[in-house]
Amino acid sequence: MADARRTAAQARLETVVAENRFGIAVLAPLIGAASLLAGARGFLPAWLAFSPALLVFGTAMLRFPLAAAIGPELDRRALAVLAALCGYTYLIEHVGVTTGWPYGAFSYGVELGPMVAGVPLALPLFFLPLVLNAYFLALALLGERARAPHLRLPAAVGLVLLVDCVLDPGAVALGFWSYADGGLYYGIPLSNYLGWALSGSVAVVTLDVAFDHRALRARLDACSFALDDLVSFVVLWGLVNLAYANWVPVLCTAALVCGLLATDRFDLALARGDGEGGVREWG
């Protein structure tokens, strides 16, 4: 009975995502980027600009395609390992906020939802999907070569760092967080990327333990919207960086777009928004 309910819920989620791909992957991040920029420039009332509830809700909505894509692979082992990874995420972020290690001394300028001990309660919702997207993209780009751990793991970590080269400058420009001593890369110190290399490596290796990469590759073949969350990421943060003339992050966004296009994942259904091109196989 429980398996039947899970299968039905999974099928419903996939249907919702497949029928609303354009709205979730393109329109929603366009609206999000416009709202964030308007809030940062004082065009929205204080109660609405960077509303914690709206930030968490909007981020959760953008995660629907990734949740639908990964859902069938979430067995007990994967859930247990992901729970441990969530704990690690909270721990390293708390250490970072209180000691400045490993990212460099930084502080939040915006409450990203409820905060506990200086750390957003929704932190895994923000961090883990970035790593999952990078891992998925690495598998898609490598194809059969993804069987080799010495290729897929460094590729995934490299993509995690590329993602943060887009995210951090945009977030700093918006005032989401800031670094006490600044830094050469749009106010971000090198230590931040050394910290991301550490936390990203731990997260990627943990995901590699949690999931069978061969099953994830098969899921990528079966689910055309598996990388739509990364599409929404490049739309939102690419536009934010473009608005602030952060040209290196814009080039990093272009590199991610090229990677997405190289996977040949996006059919005309995404452009038309007609709901086709979703899951080709489920069972």
UniProtKB/TrEMBL annotation:
Pfam families in UniProt: Caroten_synth
Membrane-traversing stretches: 21-40, 46-66, 78-101, 121-143, 155-180, 246-263
Keywords from the named record: Membrane, Transmembrane, Transmembrane helix
Protein name: Putative membrane protein
Organism: Halarchaeum rubridurum
Organism classification: Archaea, Methanobacteriati, Methanobacteriota, Stenosarchaea group, Halobacteria
